[in-house]
Amino acid sequence: MSEFLNPCNDAVFKMFFASPQNRGFLMSILQAILNFPSQIETLELLNPALGNNLLTEKGVILDLALRLQDGTLIDVEMQVARTDGFRKRMLYYWAKLHSGQLKEGDPHNKLPRTVSIVILDYNEFKEAPDEVHSIFELRERTRGTLFLPDLELHFLELRKHEAWLNKMSSQEKTQDQKTLDHWLRFFKIKELSAAELTEIHKEPLMSDAIKALETLSQDPSAKELADAREKARINWIFMNTEAEARGKAEGKAEGKAEGKAEGKAEGIAESRKHFVMAAHSNGMPLEQISKIFGIPMDEVQEILEGK
Questions:
Q1: How far apart are CA 44 and CA 1, in angstroms?
Q2: pTM (global) more than 0.90
Q3: CA atoms within 13 A of residue 264's CA, in its CB half-sphere
Q4: In the chain, what are the domain boundaries?
Q5: Residue 42 in 3-state DSSP?
Q6: In what order do the strands lie in the sheet with 64-68?
Q7: What would the pLDDT profile of 8-52 be if each residue is shown by its tens digit?
């Protein structure tokens, strides 16, 4: 089986969907998520450049901003791990995109409908374990009256895919739901068995998408950019967990009369624990954790088991 680049890597995600040759794939997934009454006819990508210089910058979001034929603005991004302030950031990004379209002197009724879409490779809304697609709007609290359709936030949680399918098993899925199912499988392509990959190939659109991803995966420059982005993500985890662990260790050391050496030892142990737990929660394989942080595999296992 071919070795695919991970479409959940946000650099790969943007390279794939920003490609003019893959514009039909972008229209397909947007239609499946937004469920427009009629098919999307045209779209304009507002930020097609990947911005290679930003790949290693900490905290930079590689998103896709686009405009549909009716003026609707859409921002799409891939998020592989929970971050502090995520929901506030999403609202801020939506507001920035929405208000940024209004020029000085323009009437406010020129502001377009603005939609944010985030594909999550973790569970954000744990209160809904079998709801793969969450949609947030601006409504009156008791009557449910929609204030305006201009604010719309969509979240797709990949880890709820199977639970959603089980819930939908007794129902007749719409065409958009079937297409959404195919795209959710596509994003988890590196986890599919050979039989599952053969099955998804039966859908012509998805077969073409897999071939396009295979072509991208064979491009050395694309692989280099994907690796750079993954290393930046790992460094981001490392730096944040190190700062948190250092703060805890210093606090413990200050509370001891003679305990500088003891505090330092506890700080090292605390740092190792935080590195392992944070990297694991962000989806890093155990072998990679052991190699990058220089921690033996048996110690990695012990930390994750809470020993």
A1: 35
A2: no
A3: 3
A4: 10-218, 227-304
A5: coil
A6: 43-45, 64-68, 73-79, 114-120, 146-157, 133-139
A7: 999 999 999 999 999 999 999 999 999 988 888 889 999 888 765
